[in-house]
Amino acid sequence: MKKIDLRSDTVTMPTQSMLKAMAAAEAGDDVYGEDPTVNRLQTMAAERMGKEAGLYLPSGTMGNLTAVLVHCNRGDEVIMGNRAHTFLFEGGGVSALGGVAMYLLPNEDDGTLKMQDLQSAVRPDNPHHPRSRLVVLENTQNRCGGAPLSVEYTNAVGEFAHSNGLLFHLDGARIFNAAVAMGTTARELAAPADSITFCLSKGLCAPVGSVLCGSKEFIHDAIRIRKQLGGGMRQVGYIAAAGIVALEEMTERLVEDHQRLQALSDGLLKLPGLYKYLNPPISTNMLFIALDDSIPVDGAAFIEKMAQQNIMIGSAGPRHFRMVTHYWISDEDVTRTIKAFNSILSSL
Ligand SMILES: Cc1ncc(COP(=O)(O)O)c(C=O)c1O
Hints:
Blueprint lengths: L3 E2 L10 H8 L12 H14 L3 E5 L2 H12 L4 E6 L3 H4 L4 H6 L2 E5 L9 H7 L9 E8 L12 H13 L3 E5 L3 H8 L3 H5 L4 E5 L10 E5 L1 H13 L8 H13 L4 H16 L4 E3 L9 E6 L7 H10 L2 E2 L1 E4 L2 E5 L6 H17 L1
Helix pairs in contact: 1-11, 2-11, 3-10, 12-14
């Protein structure tokens, strides 16, 4: 029986076309700037994001960290949501490695930060305070249920940041999911940002890698920070080749993952005992559901029962689950998952 892995879109394996491109790739020493495949990927990525330059990195975490370290000095403060990946899931790297403080604002359920909260987070220029330097938004917003942010909202935050002397970084790990969900382009969504990180390795299926994009001057500094963090790689064109295929072939099809997520959500929410606990107005490829009090097992036991049917779902709390659709999840897999939930719930 096929294993269905819904824990994350990070579990995706490369496509056949990626494996072919990897085997045929030309490579060179990328720390010397001599890997033609990496150079091509960086140029393509920058073009897709509407920025002057791009930098290939091992992970989205390193992309966000590098951006914060370029934009901020020690003792500076970055404003972000209390459900931001950079705050919750990146090991506190911006503080641990950069001496940068985080000013957290409540994320609304649609992934946004309120404009009046942003305004009140800007510190006066006074030696008692850290120096406000940077705003970070996440699109799509993972812990708001994969909520996509609109072009209008992102533009408003860019305008707010720049009119207050702040810089603006976008954690666009899933920016192409946001673009297809909002009927726009990654370039439009990234336009107001001074820098953007996006991941090739999630729904786009490349095995490894993210690209950080921004001005030529920003990327010049980012190369030094990447080296300091140990992220300078050598003949990395062999994996960057999969990133090129990701950009060429995998961005527009994300709409299929969103449709399957909707089918999964519709099917599961018809079953008694389940409720959606993160409910963004627009969904992308993530579903956050929980067991209500009528169900006499906890989340860990439920996950184990699903695993016995070769279906893996993510834990997101004591009775809470995350499921993420991606390229390797088919219509049949969605149907089988709904059936498995139904059979377990009815057996309890
Ligand atoms: C919104 C968001 N940003 C950043 C990252 C970090 O990416 P990576 O796992 O490549 O470090 C993730 C990973 O899941 C994410 O969901």
